[in-house]
Amino acid sequence: MSLVAVPEGLRAAGQSAAGLADQLGAVNLAGPADALGGWLPGGAAAAAGDELATVWQVRLADLVRQVDSHATALSGAGDTFHGQDENNAAGLPRGVR
Amino acid sequence: MPGIGDVRRWSPGGLDSGAGVLLARRTTLVELQDELDASVHPTQWVGDAADAARTRHTQMSEALRRLVAQVEAMRTAMIGAADSAGAVLQALREADELAARYYFHIGDDGVVREAVPDGLMMSEDDAADRGRLLAELVDRVEQVLRTATDVDAELARVLRAAARDEIDDGTGAALLGASVAGIGQGQDQAVLPPPGGGSPADNNAYWDTLTEAQRKDLIDQHPELVGNLDGIPAAARDDANRTRLPAEIVAAEAELARAQHAFDNPSLASQFGQLVAGDLGTTVDDDLRRAEEKLAALRAVERATENGGQLLVLDSSGEMVKAAVAAGDVDTADHVSVSVPGMTTTVQQNLESQVDQTAALREQTDDQLRAQGRGGETVATVAWLGYEPPGWGSFTDDWDITDTVATSGQAEEGGASLAGFVNGVDASRADDPHLTTLAHSYGSTTAGYGLQRGTGVDDAVFYGSPGLGTSDVADLGVTPGHVYVAEAQGDPVADLGTFGTDPNLLPGVTHLSTQAGVSPDGVDRTASSGHSEYTRDGTMSQYNQSTIVAGMPDRVVTGTDVGAGDGVGLGVRSWF
Questions:
Q1: How far is the C-alpha of B569 from the C-alpha of A47, rounded, in Å?
Q2: How far apart (Å, rounded) are the C-alpha atoms in residues B360 and B536?
Q3: Any CB–CB contact under 8 A between A53 and chain B?
Q4: pLDDT, tens digit, for every residue of B289-345?
Q5: Which chain A positions have a beta carbon within 8 Å of B42's beta carbon?
Q6: What's the pTM?
Q7: How far is B430 from chain A (nearest CA, A)?
């Protein structure tokens, strides 16, 4: 096992997750569902569209939070691995090797 | 539930554009697959934290997959809704136009109101037409609302399922796979079936509200709902009935095999205590005979339509198979005739000859139109065996007079079917074709009862008639001067007057010649004699029928042919 690969891999995965969260956060899913009442007024679909628009906003925001949290956790783990490695290196005199 | 005012504000274009936006959103989400894959922690990382990260990533992936499936389901449902909404709006626009043409107005509340301009005078015919039209408009509004409610409910169903997280994202981990799973769940679950017991106008309005794809689905998957539905286009009925016919034949073959087996193995029947095979107290002999007749009838339908024609009725329910076959295109013909045969007629024995006769009548009518410089007009002639005429056997088998030709029951029942059929032809057309009924023998009684139910028939011809089910021509509801009667020499049935006054003696009918002679087109025509030569090729009788079908009443050859019964005022009530 390469000790370098783990912290770098975690940081890279964390960056990807952060990018994923950003892109997900930019998606406006609710628009068409919200507009349905104007295209098909007077029935059950309009009300169902309103409900779905709200649900999707909440669902997407939750997902963005999850992904963001995941990104932070992965990056944090990578940093921790890296910091631990530095600490370990500092505690071991070069001559010992 | 949407009202008419709501439907008027429906925007299929808006729904389409919304579906387009959802497509873009779904594409964006699916394209996040790379970022999603790249956000998995390195495999070299193991331990509790790594396990927790893996679980979290799986949850994120699953949530995103479900979202993709929901978006795709909604997009698919919106496309379907846009198509259906377009068809509903078109049907409503047509109803609005029809209403305006006859000075009605369909309100946003769905009520059809009078909108006759002050001082406008209308003829009696127009006034009568308006009465029928009002009922038709009400039917059309009903069907628009029925389908609109279904369209709305179907879209709402998908949206609610998405809101409740009930859209299945399928199997696998790929976002694209979830999208594919969403498509199936956004599609219409089932096409709205026709209105049960609907009038021809109801059925036509219902058909108008369906998209082409829905119509095709209905014909492919449920042809039994379409083939005999009065009020929908002839081409659709033909498609549906031709789709059904092979399966009907296979089922009839199996039924015959079962009946034959029971007949060949009487011990099987006797094990059950008696020679009774069915729930209706029928014997194995009866069942075998019926199965043979049914299969023979269906095969006759197959033969009669193998070279073309429109199969407009195919009904194997009841005691006898019913069928109707048109020569020509009933959807577009300027002149449409419906021939109604009489007693002892069956599909298995008579359909092919009836089809030949109506095809010959069509040719003769085309000839007459061409001869008068009206060759651009088109003709369709229908052989309608859409009811169960009585036969001699039903009397002689059990001596029960209630099921003999001398009673009107089957004519009244058949008349209701005939009225539905001819009104269906009218309702299925945006224009108003010239419509003629040609009815023979007991069929004329059937047609008489049918016309009394109110139809759009323009001309009615009765030949060899034992009565029209009424003694007053006005009851037929045909424009005065457009009811014709023919009686051949030596036809005893035409003098019976069993079902109302002998038609020959009714005031208000025009008598057609059945004698030999030269018709106005200069052709020698032969006479008809007896009860069964009215439609024979080359007769004056057939010529007269063709001129009436062609809408050329001034070209008919009138006559005063009467039988012995007329001469002595024979009021025969029974002719056995």
A1: 74
A2: 9
A3: no
A4: 999 999 999 999 999 999 999 999 999 999 999 999 999 999 999 999 999 999 889
A5: 5-6, 9-10, 13
A6: 0.79
A7: 28
